[in-house]
């Protein structure tokens, strides 16, 4: 059994593995801090519409990861493009759908994004943007 003084010292000394997870005091992302902001409607929404925001976020994620894979480029502009394409596509094609249909589409986009993620991650890691 550890002595109390040693136990408290062990708790205070962070491990090397946990050094990657140290929170920052800013809200700025670590990778591509100048990425485009979400549209106002996605940040100022009624909580009952959260499923709509989630759909556009997954659409955006799938779009950007696909672009990385197709181009082999993981610059900030490719990985974090404007939100306009995803937002416009949502309003043109999905805004009139019911909650359950939106949840189904969200799952489809999440699966697509996860497939692209596997191929995009090594590209982005090699370019220092993961």
Task: Write structural notes for this entry.
This protein has 130 residues and is mainly alpha-helical. The chain contains six helices and no strands. It has helices at residues 4-12, 40-43, 50-71, 76-79, 84-93, 99-126. α3 packs across α5 (84-93) and α3 packs parallel to α6. The longest helix is centred in the C-terminal third of the chain and has 28 residues, at 99-126. The protein is globular and about 40 Å long. Residues 6-13 have low confidence and may be disordered. Residues 1-19 form the signal peptide. This is YARHG domain-containing protein. Keywords: Plasmid, Signal.
Question: Summary?
Answer:
This protein has 6 helices and no strands.
Overall average pLDDT: 87
Shape: globular
Number of strands: 0
Question: How is the biggest beta sheet arranged?
Answer: none
Structural class: mainly alpha
Termini separation comes to 41 Å
Query: What is the quaternary state of this protein?
Result: single chain
């Amino acid at each position: 059994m550890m002595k109390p003084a040693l136990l408290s010292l062990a708790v205070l000394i962070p491990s090397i593995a946990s050094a990657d997870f140290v929170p920052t005091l800013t809200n700025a992302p670590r990778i591509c801090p100048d990425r485009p902001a979400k549209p106002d409607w996605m940040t100022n929404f009624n909580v009952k519409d959260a499923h709509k925001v989630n759909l556009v976020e997954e659409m955006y994620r799938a779009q950007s990861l696909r672009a990385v894979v197709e181009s082999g480029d993981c610059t900030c502009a490719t990985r974090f493009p404007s939100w306009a394409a995803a937002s416009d596509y949502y309003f043109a094609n999905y805004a009139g759908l019911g909650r359950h249909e939106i949840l189904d589409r969200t799952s489809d986009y999440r699966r697509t994004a996860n497939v692209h993620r596997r191929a995009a991650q090594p590209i982005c890691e090699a370019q220092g943007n993961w």
